[in-house]
Amino acid sequence: MKGYSGDKDKTRSQNIKNYLKKESFEVFVSEVVSPWEFYSQKTDPLIISRLEKLNRDINQYCTKVPINKGPLPTGSSCCVKFTADNLWYRGIVLENLGQACLVRQVDFGNSEVIPWSSVLPMPPQFQTLDSVSFRCCLADIRKTRKGRDWDEKAKKYFEVFKFLECFCYVY
């Protein structure tokens, strides 16, 4: 092909990556689904402090309101009582399952099937802080077989990164 140079393509590719790089910062991994899907939080003390206060306020509020009796639409912001610690957190309804729903905790990334009695519509005062966790995946890693997920051994190995501080590059 006339004018083709592999070196030029490599340089161009690197320049594009450098241009697209938005920022870098320290994070800790808060939830691991697989190397293709894990959730992190910035380690910024101000953000963590605001989140802790917000969670205290949510728990005070949710213990005083009536129990929810019906489903919320998929995609709704909600307050959700997770079974691991019986505390209320901010969430999003991912799927309606009849008497329960699949909910993701937006500030930590973990998901759980929860009965509707443990899900409340989120009042506006709890929506002032952006979601603290964000979805991540390993960069420049390809699956070995089309359509295959990571095997359990690889997922377990990747779990060692949970709650460790890491450095994150956002592209």
Descriptive overview:
- There is one protein chain.
- Helices cover 23% and strands 33% of the residues.
- Strand 1 and strand 2 form a beta hairpin.
- It has a 5-stranded antiparallel β-sheet with strand order 6-5-4-3-7. It has a 4-stranded antiparallel β-sheet with strand order 8-2-1-9.
- The N terminus is likely disordered.
- It is of the alpha+beta class and 171 residues long.
- The protein has 3 helices and 9 strands; from the N terminus they run αββαββββββαβ.
The DSSP helix count reads: 3
Oligomeric state of the chains present here: single chain
Helix percent band: 10-25%
The shape, in one word, is: globular
| Largest sheet composition | 5 strands, antiparallel
What's the overall average pLDDT, rounded?
81
Order of strands across the biggest sheet? 6-5-4-3-7
Q: From the helix content, strand content and strand pairing, which structural class follows?
A: alpha+beta
Low-confidence segments: 1-9
Structure characteristics:
single chain; 171 residues; alpha+beta; 5-stranded antiparallel sheet; 4-stranded antiparallel sheet; 3 helices; 9 strands; 23% helix; 33% strand; globular; disordered N terminus
Secondary structure layout:
Blueprint: H1 6-20, E1 23-34, E2 37-42, H2 45-62, E3 77-81, E4 88-96, E5 100-105, E6 111-115, E7 119-121, E8 133-136, H3 152-158, E9 165-170
Antiparallel strand pairs: 1-2, 1-9, 2-8, 3-4, 3-7, 4-5, 5-6
